[in-house]
Amino acid sequence: MPLQSGYGRGCGEAPAATLLFSDSFTSFQKVLRAPMPKLIPRAKLIPAAGTKPKRIEEFFGRANSGEGSVSIARMQSPGGWIEPGQTPEFDEYTVVLEGVLRVESKAGVLDVRAGQAVLVQCGEWVRYSTPEPEGAQYVAVCLPAFSLESAHRDAP
Predict the structure, then answer these.
(1) Are the beta carbons of 88 and 121 closer than 8 angstroms?
(2) Residues in CB range of 26: below 8 A, 6 or more apart
(3) Can you give the pTM of this predicted structure?
(4) Number of Cβ atoms within 10 Å of the Cβ of 123
(5) Could you tell me the end-to-end alpha-carbon distance of the chain, in angstroms, rounded to an integer?
(6) With bands split at pLDDT 50, 70 and 90, how would you rate the model's confidence at 35?
(7) According to CATH, where is 2.60.120.10 located in the chain?
(8) Which of 71, 111, 116, 133 has its CA 20 to 30 A from that of 100?
(9) List of residues 6+ apart from 120 with CB closer than 8 A
(10) What pLDDT, on a 0 to 100 scale, did the predictor assign at position 107?
(11) Which residues are within 8 A (CB) of 156 and not within 5 positions of it... i.e. 6 or more apart?
């Protein structure tokens, strides 16, 4: 089965080596076209919607790395925080690290606890909140990357 990630968008094979020859063809230099690992030196703080201040630290995504295919952010929400509902154009994978994240959908309500995860699929209406006093810390991964335009938040 072809490799699905690590070498660019949709490339399924490892990069090939290329030989570059000098004008005299007496010497050559082997150059790999492999991508280099990209260090993200710090997250970018992103303004958050909701009833109380929430901290969003984006590591990968449109705002911090210019990445449009995925966003990865760490969230820290205080107790009692409620985000406006939205119907996003992206899948959102969330892993709760501490506390409880409440996920409301048209199908019902889930309380996602530390050590658990939830997937909200593209086109589903959802509203997130942190009902317990200690709030929650979680990591969200959006495919494709989050943007305000693609979140389709409910009107206030």
Answers:
(1) no
(2) none
(3) 0.78
(4) 11
(5) 48
(6) confident
(7) 44-151
(8) 71
(9) 88, 91, 92, 94, 103, 105, 126
(10) 97
(11) 84
In CATH terms, the fold of domain 44-151 is: Jelly Rolls (2.60.120)
Query: Of 34, 30, 36, which is closest to residue 18 (Cα–Cα)?
Result: 30
Over residues 82-137, the pLDDT tens digits come to: 999 999 999 999 999 999 999 999 999 999 999 999 999 999 999 999 999 999 99
The per-residue DSSP string of the chain comes to: ----SSSSTT--SPPPEEEEE-TTSS-EEEEE-PPPP----SPEEE---SSS--EEEEEESTTTT--SS-EEEEEEE-TTEEPPPB--SSEEEEEEEEEEEEEEETTEEEEEETT-EEEE-TT--EEEEE-STT-EEEEEEEES---HHHH-BPP-
Cα 138-143-149 angle, rounded to 5 deg: 95
Residue 93: what residue type?
Y
Radius of gyration over every alpha carbon of the chain, rounded to an integer in angstroms: 21
Residue 10 in tokens: 């949709």
CB 81 within 8 A of CB 131: no
Q: Tokens in use for 75?
A: 């969230």
